[in-house]
Amino acid sequence: MSSPLKVALIGNPNTGKTSIFNALTGLRQKVGNYPGITVEKKTGACSFGPDLNATIYDLPGTYSLNTTSLDESVAVEILLNRRDPDFPDVVVVIADVENLKRNLLLFTQIKDLGLRTILVINMSDRMKRLGIEIDVPSLESSLDTRIALLSSRNDTGIEDLKAILSDYKSISDQPSLDITDIDKAYFENLKTTFPKIDAYKLWLAITQDVNFMPIEKKVIPDRSAFSTKSKSELQKMQHRETVLRYKYINNALKEGYQKDLSKADGIQGVLDRIFTHKIFGYLIFFVILFTMFQAIFDFSSYPMDAIDHFFASASEWIKATLPSGVLTDLLAEGIVAGIGGVVIFIPQIAFLFLFISILEESGYMSRVVFLMDRIMKPFGLSGKSVVPLMSGMACAIPAVMATRTIENWKERLITIMVVPFTTCSARLPVYLIIIALVIPEGRFLGLGYQALVLTGLYLLGFLAAVVAAAILNRGLNIERRSFFMIEMPTFKPPQFRNVAITVFEKTKSFVLEAGKIILALSVVIWFLGSNGYSDSFKNAEAEVIQQIQQQGLNLSDEELSQKISSYKLEHSYIGVLGKIIEPVVKPLGYDWKIGIAVITSFAAREVFVGTLATIYSVGEESESTIVGRMALETDELGKPIFNLASGVSILLFYAFAMQCMSTIAVVRKETNSWKWPMIQLGYMTLLAYLSALIAYQTLI
Amino acid sequence: MTNLLELKIGQKAIIADSIDERLPVKLMELGCLPGNEVQLLQIAPLNDPLYYLVAGNRISIRREIAGLISLDL
Ligand SMILES: Nc1nc2c(ncn2[C@@H]2O[C@H](COP(=O)(O)OP(=O)(O)OP(=O)(O)O)[C@@H](O)[C@H]2O)c(=O)[nH]1
Ligand SMILES: [Mg+2]
Q1: Structure pTM?
Q2: Cys-Cys with A15: which of A11, A42, A76, B15 at CB 3.0–4.6 Å?
Q3: Are residues A191 and A270 in the same domain?
Q4: What is the structure's pLDDT at A487?
């Protein structure tokens, strides 16, 4: 069997590349109405017949081969190196009918690389509304390519595309323009110096200007090697090139593309005036955010209570049904409790993803970028930093990746450094349980205290991000010239399918990822909690009875067995470990059990609750829900461990600490060094410890 | 000579023939070419960035760049 055909989907941002990729491969990559949803290369398989298999590459969007941000350069790099294992056999340029002219600019550039190029004109469902008419055969001949008119929304045209692809050998690979036309003498000269290299590729290398990466990683050879022209002369030549390209495009479209200009879309203008209004624009933004928090807190409490009780009774059922023994204990107390600790947050996380994906799918996000750009600037951030900061509420990992759309390396680095302060969904489990324990249920001006505290924590995260950004902005000495530009996509009613897929996929991966870690850690902690090496652990029963007799107490059987199991826990492996770290966490108001939970949650924050659930389930048995057990915990003097002071201290610690291995890994990847993630880990942990310390010591 | 910064909200104009050599190529590629029509759609609070409709493309750019594009009146 021959190796599969390599097909790259490339095109301007937001033209539906990922939608078409999903249709071809049956995968479910994320789609949204914001330029810059896809920021890395994705692959999938597709077959066009019995013996033609293909690998499809979904790439980030780019306006041009002249790239100005990292996501764009990811897309372009794959086309430039013939020796790259991913170098495509066929390129499919995906264009949006509405902005066909601009989309064709990239098309002509790709054709000039000498690649077999197909054109897909997507969103054909909108042609009538926009008053556009297209004569496909005429365009095919004027652009020297094959064209599929397609609508991924209505599922039309995909078969045409497959048919064209299966006949890929007949597709033209001739360039659209002759690049040497922009300056004959200059290119003659180049050709004698570099006879083997294609003129257009050489030209791209010469004019590439990289501002979105650390300078050390410059991919471009020293410009002085071709220094027959000054930078401003080169820039003028590029301007000339662009004018030539548009001339070619206008000519090519003359016959086959008609647009009725009277059909302007009036509603778009009205929506834009409202959503980007100087006052209403912000009001709407804050109302949206506030509704989101209320929904997360209020609506999801019902399913959450149900889930909590379900797991409590499942655990009891297991203990009652299965023969008692070590394995039953592990199952009932370790695993079921640990999984319950994750599953309980599904409603909240689903709500969060629902909101964020509706905002993205509708086209609203770009308006937020527009409104916030000037406000973010003094903090060394870009308007485009708002999107990572907001999607960081779901998870910091995709948020760090999303910074790839930021054109300026300094702004991008600062955004990466502060994104983990945004309250991500993994903090929710900790926040909600602690809030439920230490914040009273009353209402203030009709707003629940608990919801207010949660909103406050979100604001605190955002504030910390902004203040840290301002400090970094002063401290970092990076001067990079680059410019901000964002396209404002037309508003669209969110497509149910896309929103549903995002919510489902993201929630699923949260539960699975967290589930794996929690499951593993629960088993380990349960084991360490129910075994020990010291004599005190082995003779727990005798020692407790002896103590009780010395103190002259008279306990019921149940109280006695409780005393014995907590004595055992304290002398188990985990208890010994906990006692070692206790001096470090004691000033923050934590006992050794919380200390252990803090340590284990350095792997991932959501592990905190699971760890406590497991530790407590080994200890006591009278309460079956997690919150119930935590409320019963007392110190030596019989005061609750989870009181206002220690609760606030835990909340602050989790608000600021960088407790997530995966984020550290992704920051390393995106900044290309260990330096930045280590600085981040250091300063965030320090801030977390100090603020928790101050809070506890002042409140106690 | 006027430039993009001098448009009022809703006002339209034609981009002039002379191109500032500092203008990022990217903007020309997005339609900021001599002879194309441009309309100012919205100005963000604090007067930056600005939101234009250029040759059918809706883009938003900062003042420093908008000032580089001159207009025919
Ligand atoms: N009306 C209409 N909308 C579409 C069609 N195809 C995609 N869309 C919408 O266009 C938007 C962008 O789709 P994506 O598939 O994410 O586009 P993309 O090119 O991958 O975008 P980036 O990854 O950001 O470059 C989404 O809101 C889609 O729902 C179509 O055929 N018709
Ligand atoms: Mg995409």
Answers
A1: 0.85
A2: A11
A3: no
A4: 92
